[in-house]
Amino acid sequence: MSKPREENMPVIEKNENEIANRETVGRSQREIIINRFVKHKAAMGSLFTLIFIVIFVFSATGLNLGPKKGGLSIPGWWKYKITDIDPEGAIAASCNGGVTGCPTLDLAPSFMDGDGIRFGDHPFGTDIIGTDYFALVMRGAQQSITVMLIVGFLGVTIGTTIGAIAGYFGGMVDAVLMRLTDMFLVTPTIIIGSLIGFRYGNFGVVPLAILLGFFAWMGLARFVRTEFLTLREREFVDAARVAGASDRRIIFKHILPNAIGVIIVAGTLLLSGAILAETALSYLGFGVRPPDVSLGLLISQYQDTFSISPWLFWWPGALIVSIALCVNFIGDGLRDAFDPRQRRHVSAKDRLSAAEHKGKSS
Amino acid sequence: MLAYISRRLGMMLVIVFGASFLAYNLQAYSSDPLSVFGESTEKNKDYLIAATIRDLQLDVPPPIRYFSWLRGIIAGLWGDFDMGLSRSNIPVIEILAMAIPVTIKLVITATFLAIIFGISVGMITAIRQYSRFDYVMTFFSFLLFSLPIFWVAVLLKEFMAIQFNDFLADPRIPAGVIVITSLIFGVVIAGFTGGTRAQFFAVIGGAALFAGVVLSYVSATQWFLDPGFGIFGVSFLALISALVVIQLITGLESKKGRYAGFGVALAIALLYYPLQTLMTADASVLNVLAVFSVTISIGIGIGIAVSKIDRRVYMRIGFFTAFIGTFPIVIDRFMGEFSNYMNSDAVNNRPIPTLGQANDLLAPEQLENFWISGLDTALHLILPTLALTLISFAGYVRFSRGSLLEVLNMDYIRTARAKGLSERTVIVRHGMRNAMLPLTTILVNDFAGLIGGAIITEGVFAWKGMGQVFNEAIRNYDLNLFMGVFIITASLTVLANFVADLLFGVVDPRIRIRK
After folding, report:
1. What is the three-class DSSP state of A62?
2. Per the omega criterion (within 30 degrees of 0), is the bond before A316 cis?
3. Are A284 and B471 a contacting pair at CB < 8 A?
4. Residue A272: closest CA among A323, A348, A202, A214
5. pLDDT band at residue A129 using 50, 70 and 90 as cut-offs
């Protein structure tokens, strides 16, 4: 195995350079990056899945914007709310001696088994008191996604600002800001999260998410700072400064666009961390409280009934895992698109032609 | 150097001071210890409120109260350490002293397992970049990354504990399960070894056949009811560890390497019965240490004996083979007590527990028996360890894969190949060693994060460690207890950062610590 590889190294390398050049000739940086991302199948698949999940979840439950009364309210398409209780429906669909309503969802077509594809009255079954579980899961997912987006947005904004200022100005400003970052960083997120969640969890999910967002920026600030430290020494920054650009202009117009890759990649990592943190907090009882629901809370409520009614446990878990998995894959695709050093994409066709080269040379 | 260290230490103090000030005020302002009296109808409500205010000094503003707490910490400098009392009037330091060992016990095995498996799998995926194995492991590690640990824990409880215990009532494995498991095992092993297409299928076939035979044996003899490796299992595992160690250190083509490794494996097989006399019923940890020191000294001795030159290399082979190969002997001894343990009233034939850190119902004589109580602890550790390992495994895979890939693109790797070194030497000596450098930072930080890092796991499995203490502190508005947990985790984190930086300067001479 070892010998042929040594011989063929130059061939493969030449081939890879050709592929890399073919990708970039005559294109702008943005086109190259978008092109690379679109080619990443797992990332594109995840992106579509995630968009589908978000639209599905938010349209099922509807949206309430603004204050509780008088705000903009769009009803969802799903017929039950998390407050609707339907004991008859639960009993009608019940199994396991009528403790909970079994799921009426059947995806197996009639020729395999079951009664054909149907959604039924309670596709995910009902919980113990007869609340429709589909409504609960959709509401929970909506809450979890909301937290994820708010925490992500706040974390990226604060982190980028602090990192950019520290990295650009350096010196005393840098030292002070970085010590501040360290102070926030030495506290495990789960500890601060629990503290905040225990006190403010009952105020609803948005205030909780905003508070959590104030403690989620440290990693990103460090990344952005490092990037700024190297970028500010580059010639184009000197050129801008000589041309008389202000600090603000240099930061926003010259350096930030060059650091956007690091920010986006670290931001997606932040997102997947945020959804796992929210579900963990809710699971511990430090996040979203009943009567409202979140995916972590649902899992914590029904973990003991796993052997009797496993669907109460599978569905929220499956949603958390798919959302986090999609975000992680998108992050991976973005990293490859912005920084292709770690992973060069060699398509099957390219590999075939490389193999032909190999065949000729040996 | 001294100036650097003292400057860093000063900075650490500032950070811990700032962070603790922040945390103290955050906790003080966000908690309301008087809220429990809100609905109270007791007659002496006012008195109770006044007493609480007095006890917790609630009339002092938190930023000032912080300094009275800090005084106790600073007093630690002259050995008068005081973290205050918890709300149940127990010194915080005592509570922490009870909790920390529990947490360490819970996480230490999982961390080691995750590091060992994560780094090996990560490096193999890097060497076989873009292979099927790489793609499967990449997907797998992303999946593990995305799993909430409490969800994994519930699944493990159901499938690894409840259903496994049910299975033990009639421990026969269905033929279909044997076939499928063997095939999966074969594919995984083949993914590890790689090679040409023909070799790949040969390895799948061989490994699957082997797994099939083992599983059928396990099923037919009802092995799970009275498990054990026996002398054959121990010898076989010693042989495997010898193979791996030789391959990594000198390569199998080295004659002296083979002598050293296989010699030690043979010695372990021969020592199996003699060593049993060391592991008596009234044994303790010391006996286990004695077993290890016997085998390791023999291993090093064999390493010295096989060669007159380059002795250190062969001593290393002897040492590692003996070290790894001795574990089966000791584990075998623990397994010997399994049927005793399982049939006892306390366990009632359901050996894998879903909750707790020890079985409280065990008889005193069972608790005194090192092997039975050790087995009890091990069985209680299985589920949390599996959950923690699965979760943290993914991070190590990704990190070590990226690290090795970066190193393999370096010029010195090309130089090493150009010099005509064997591929094994290039990868192990030049590649893996350098890829390990950035990992040191991660490892040190992870060990520091262990103590505060298992809050959820402890909750799910009802272990009474730091996580439970912290949980209690938040729910009872126990400021001193909260700060106790906080100061431990925070100081460990800063300290770990510092150690990691120093260590990095030591292992990587290219990094010079600024004076």
Report:
1. strand
2. no
3. yes
4. A323
5. low
Handedness of CA B492, B496, B498, B503 (dihedral sign): positive
Which amino acid type is present at position A171?
A: G
Where along chain B do its domains lie? 1-31+83-168+365-515, 32-80
Overall size of chain A counted in residues: 362
Distance CA B494, CA B21 (A): 16
Given the candidates 3.40.30.10, 1.10.3720.10, 2.40.50.360, 3.30.70.1150, the CATH classification of the domain at B1-31+83-168+365-515 is 1.10.3720.10
- Of B414, B479, B387, give the one whose Cα is nearest residue B65: B479
A73 to chain B, minimum CA–CA distance in Å? Answer: 32
B249-253 contact pairs (CB < 8 A, 24+) = B249/B313, B249/B316, B249/B317, B249/B320, B250/B313, B250/B314, B250/B317, B251/B422, B251/B424, B251/B425
> What is the helix (H) or strand (E) element at residue B487, kind and residue range?
helix B479-507
Residues of chain B in contact with residue A42, where contact means CB-CB under 8 angstroms, are 139
Structure-token pair, residue B364: 């005193």
Size of interface A-B (CB pairs under 8 A): 139
Residue B221 near residue B171 (C-beta atoms within 8 A): no
3-state helix/strand/coil string of B375-409: HHHHHHHHHHHHHHHHHHHHHHHHHHHHHHHHHHC
The DSSP bridge partners found for residue A62 are A75
Distance CA B169, CA B217 (A): 18
DSSP label of B307: -
- What interface predicted TM-score (ipTM) does this complex get? 0.80
Query: Any idea which of A52-56, A203-207, A279-283 has the lowest mean pLDDT?
Result: A203-207
* DSSP secondary structure letters along A203-257: G-HHHHHHHHHTTS-HHHHHHHHHHHHHHTTSHHHHHHHHTT--HHHIIIIIIHH
Interface contact B15-A286, CB threshold 8 A: no
Residues 6+ apart with CB under 8 A from A256: A160, A164
Contact status of A299 with chain B (Cβ, < 8 Å) = yes
CB nearest to B26's CB, from A190, A195, A296: A195
pLDDT in tens, B137-165: 888 888 888 888 888 888 888 888 888 88
Which residue bears the tokens 């905003």?
A210
* Cα four-point dihedral sign B491, B493, B497, B502: positive
Residue A74 DSSP label: E
Rama region for A114: left / alpha / beta (φ>0; ψ in -120 to 50; rest)? left
Q: Which of helix, strand or coil describes residue A132?
A: strand
- The verdict on A342 touching B (C-beta cutoff 8 Å) is yes
pLDDT of residue A112: 52
Is-contact A103 A123, C-beta < 8 A?
A: yes
Work out the angle at residue B103's Cα, subtended by the Cα atoms of residues B98 and B106, and round it to the nearest 5 degrees. 135
To the nearest whole Å, the CA of A187 is away from the closest chain B CA by: 6
Q: How far apart are the C-alpha atoms of B480 and B482, rounded to whole Å? A: 5
Residue with tokens 């008068």: B80
Q: Which domains, and CATH codes, for chain A?
A: 46-84+136-338 (1.10.3720.10), 86-131 (no CATH)
The DSSP bridge partners found for residue A126 are A132
How far, in whole angstroms, is CA B390 from its chain's centroid?
A: 11
pLDDT in tens, B209-261: 999 998 888 888 888 888 888 888 999 999 999 999 998 888 888 888 899 99
Alpha-carbon distance values, B83 to A103, A275, B324 (Å)? 53, 35, 42
Contact predicate A93/A99, CB 8 Å: no
Q: Quick one: pLDDT band at residue B515, thresholds 50, 70, 90? A: very low
The CA distance from B193 to B200, in Å, is 8
Pick the residue from chain A with its C-alpha nearest to B147: A321
Q: Which of A200, A279, A307 sits opposite B148 (nearest CB)?
A: A279
Nearest to B250 by CA among B309, B313, B323: B313
